[in-house]
TrEMBL record, chains A, B:
Function: Catalyzes the conversion of 3-deoxy-D-arabino-heptulosonate 7-phosphate (DAHP) to dehydroquinate (DHQ).
Principal location: cytoplasm
Phylogenetic lineage: Bacteria, Pseudomonadati, Pseudomonadota, Betaproteobacteria, Rhodocyclales
GO molecular function ontology, one term from the record: nucleotide binding
Family that this chain belongs to: Belongs to the sugar phosphate cyclases superfamily. Dehydroquinate synthase family.
InterPro entries named among the record's database cross-references: Dehydroquinate_synthase, DHQ_synth_AroB, DHQ_synth_fam, DHQS/DOIS_N, DHQS_C
Protein known as: 3-dehydroquinate synthase
Residues noted as binding Zn(2+) in the record, renumbered to the chain: E184, H247, H264
Recorded name of the encoding gene: aroB
Catalytic activities: 7-phospho-2-dehydro-3-deoxy-D-arabino-heptonate = 3-dehydroquinate + phosphate
Domain 3-dehydroquinate synthase C-terminal, first and last residues per copy: 181-324
Length: 360, 360
């Protein structure tokens, strides 16, 4: 088992990474010092893993209150969040009752936000079961729900007490979701870890074949990158923003196409292509660099062209995004392959040109 | 002008207390470094003070986005909170846009929770306009909304950058609201400041007559007490719980009677009488002590008997309250007049007896 520590002073917490951790009562018990715990999951994940987690908790003397939500990004709303609150209040949960999120990023983001708000904060544990949530959303304490006018607009910074990363849960993950998760893995290589990018270029097929050791390595190295960034900048006032490579464009794609049509990772891949093209227009990347980025995404089966929403619509959607500061678009761009920067030097016509060039 | 500092490390902030502060652009400007600011207020307070605050902000070069909510505790809900989010998103507010709450505790609690959640946190300023919000809710960073199953169940700890306490706003406060606010003022004397209680016993009539100097003194001393407690225990893991004297019983009264029937301060006064009676049953207060508590509340025009909901209903409602730990009721009681303790020694039959004795 690998263990990483996210260093955030009194809010520090461990990430345990291995196969089969769902059965490890010894890892959960130190963080669940209560007679009962809430497990928030969804209709897809519950039949696969809820009973096992329940058995493990019961072994540790903890009885489980399950909250089973509908599945899907379109349910990442206040209405669904309220289902969690109703269950917590219905079961008379106390502020000391731990809440465990068992599922992908949607469950983690909603479970975390519910834990942050219920009685102003209850202990929170992440048990991520998608590649995206293993390498990204479960680490770092961002929680949120969507608003009809924008993704992740309502939320909190709220750190978990523990992340239990059971790689074996990836066995049941649909192919398309695995590929979407790879977009965020590749992202770490692009923004700050060029050696990891080289490793990915050599091992992509093994990851796609779900080779367990390769997956453990990729999750571990991704989490290590994310943990470093988060430790340096918990509330995204600086370096942490670099994790949003491709995301401002990506969120525009997700919103513009209607939540759920494009997976988050797919939108991030296409968005990263626009960001790469813009970096080329600014003279930072060569055409070969852009081609290298395109190749790795395309080998991972991810979209490398963006949907043709029209430049005006992209810009409108991006202005709603929270990466706007004093009205000027601040974007994460690539200074080189392996080094991202946050910059507002791109003029609107250049942004528009990059979008045009990358759209179908 | 008096200025107090709430000492919370990098989250420290000043409380300015005086008459006429709504006009002081110089005090607001250092905390509103943006081209626009949101002012959240309600239909009652807006006609009284919104234009003045707007003029002051405009003098500082800040344009105002007003959000005018319906008035009342029954609107302290998710639906109303969403009206704030709709306005913020509609006006393309950024995470750097400051949100100013202008009103009583309901506006402060909702405005603060909206500021905590919008894009995971925007700068927040409190401009309290009721006695209760001046002496209690605007200081300390507790924000919340209600849930049908319990008061203040959903919220966040989120500190303001500034509290602007303009005592002149009390001129227009309805008599009943002024008296309700006095319940929280008296509370500070009862739980930790016996000398202040003696001062209150001598100056209560002046406060009721809205003598400005007396009000400034009472607000200042109340805020100083609250600031000390909050600085020592921001997230209510210890001493801060003592601020809830009378509140567990009070919340049961508020919920049991239907939100809004009893004012918060009225419920706290009656709840404090039950807590005092229970403290007497435990041998901590004398009958004379209880009488002293009754006299000061009754001189302030506050209820000193609780509504007859029945003991079973009280206990049921109290179990929903967040002051329950591991199933046992932890209550704030009085060791002596001027010194509160958090204790779970009271047996359920004693709690029931105290309720019976204090009910109509
Ligand atoms: N908080 C953050 O820092 C952060 C970072 C990135 C993304 N996100 C958020 O994460 C969300 C996307 O997360 P996601 O990609 O995990 O999507 P998801 O949670 O919707 O999961 C994808 C699908 O896989 C299913 N599933 C989950 N685990 C499975 C398993 N082991 N076997 C079979 N099926 C399984 C889910 O039920 C769902 O249908 C977005 O809402 C995004 O905004 C948050
Ligand atoms: N956050 C905390 O730490 C904390 C502490 C105590 C209470 N609270 C909360 O505060 C709320 C009660 O606050 P409140 O007593 O201020 O009630 P409130 O906000 O409802 O205000 C009382 C009434 O006075 C009106 N009003 C406000 N200012 C006025 C003015 N200057 N002139 C005329 N009318 C005015 C309001 O519109 C309202 O009708 C409750 O929801 C309670 O839960 C929070
Ligand atoms: Zn992402
Ligand atoms: Zn109170």
């Amino acid at each position: 088992m690998h263990t990483l520590q996210v260093s955030l002073g009194e809010r520090s917490y461990p990430i345990h990474i291995a196969s089969g951790l769902l059965d490890r009562a010894d890892l959960l018990a130190p963080h669940v010092k209560a007679a009962q715990a809430v497990v928030v999951t969804n209709e897809t994940v519950a039949p696969l893993y809820l009973q096992r987690l329940k058995n493990t908790l019961e072994k540790a003397g903890v009885s489980v209150i399950p909250v089973i939500l509908p599945d899907g990004e379109r349910f990442k709303t206040w209405e669904t969040l309220n289902l969690i609150f109703d269950a917590l209040l219905g079961a008379h949960c106390e502020r000391s009752t731990p809440l465990i999120a068992l599922g992908g990023g949607v469950i983690g983001d909603m479970g975390g936000f519910a834990a942050a708000c219920y009685q102003r904060g209850m202990p929170f544990i992440q048990v991520p079961t998608t590649l995206l949530s293993l390498v990204d959303s479960s680490v770092g304490g961002k929680t949120a729900i969507n608003h009809p006018l924008g993704k992740n607009m309502i939320g909190a910074f709220y750190q978990p007490r523990l992340v239990l990363a059971d790689i074996a849960t990836l066995d049941t993950l649909p192919e398309r979701e695995l590929r979407a998760g790879l977009a965020e893995v590749i992202k770490y290589g692009l923004i700050r870890d060029p050696a990891f990018l080289v490793w990915l270029e050599s091992n992509l097929e093994k990851l796609l074949a779900r080779d367990r050791e390769s997956l453990i390595y990729a999750v571990h190295r991704s989490c290590a990158n994310k943990a470093e960034v988060v430790a340096a900048d918990e509330r995204e006032s600086g370096e942490r923003a670099l994790l949003n490579l491709g995301h401002t464009f990506g969120h525009a794609i997700e919103t513009g196409m209607g939540y759920g049509a494009w997976l988050h990772g797919e939108a991030v891949a296409a968005g990263t292509m626009i960001a790469s093209e813009l970096s080329r227009l600014l003279g930072w990347l060569t055409a070969d660099d852009v081609e290298r980025v395109r190749r790795i995404f395309s080998r991972a089966g991810l979209p490398v062209v963006a949907p043709g929403l029209g430049v005006a619509r992209y810009l409108e959607l991006m202005r709603h995004d929270k990466k706007v500061q004093d009205g000027r678009l601040r974007l994460v761009l690539l200074r080189s392959v392996g080094q991202a920067v946050l910059s507002d030097v791109a003029r609107e016509d250049q942004i528009g040109e990059a979008i045009e060039l990358m759209c179908t």
